[in-house]
Amino acid sequence: MPRVLSLIQKNVGDFTLDLSGLHVVVPAAAGYRAATATLALMAGAASATAITRPSNRYYSAQEAADVTSSLAALAGVRGRLRISERIDHQTCSNTNILVNSDPIPPITRSIIERLPRRSVIAMMSEPWMLLRGEIDIRACQEHRVPISAVNESHPAIGGEDYHAALCLKLFQEAGIPLDKAAVALICGNPLARDLKRGMRAAGAQVEVFPNPDMVFTHSWNAVVLAQRPTDRPSLGIHDLGRIAKVAPNAVILQYWGDIDRKAARYFGLKVWPPRTPGKSQMGMPLEALGPEPMVRLIAGTLKAAELVLAGGTPGPGGVAQFFNASDWSL
Question: In terms of domains, do 95 and 37 share one?
């Protein structure tokens, strides 16, 4: 916790983050995302409400609350923090920044229509990464609630590096040497550039395919899936049947995008990680790289929200991004 607190202090300064007088709603988490509440409060937020969800076999609401509270106490800002299991009506009416990060979504119409005039929904990712059902986009349009997003490629965020590093760590965990490995990267989105660059720098021979139907027969060592999740698996039974023919000995690495694992077992295909990371979740979470990338991303998320809330117009290459017309169609 002292190291995380030191990173929080550094990033508040690096991003010149100023949330003075604002009320924020953030996730309560057992991992490094627990820093969100403390970071907002140390940037001057008047209050932070950290949301948990009901406990299950993989998630402890009490642990998430304890870690979030302990870090705030260490920073001396615990008095402005509240832990809650839901976003009630009173919280909605006072919220200026609502962070769209698990376990807060879905952000529904009933939440959006109660937000005050001066409010913003803050994505902890780029606009194109929004998943269907996370935010009621039509309600945001009707009630004129802006959605801020963060430019992960900005040097202060470092997404170009951490996406590549996460992919390499996925290979390491799977026990697959990258040097001279033949890799088919199924990726039809902006992640392709960073993932390809990282794997090639590690010695792999990488071919990029926008969709699985385009993968050709070859002695592939690995097939990396990096598609934005949708309502259906990114690799369904048809796709996996094809991969079983063109890459029968390859390990399928789930970077992003869901896989029909029952179908994969039917075709005798090996998938890593061996246990599903959860619907629409990444196979290797950012927290696997330690606290620094996550704290930078949190700070960038809050800075983007601050800029949008102040009425600024995000320019090309800046930390903040707006949704454009094509993003609203999600």
Answer: yes
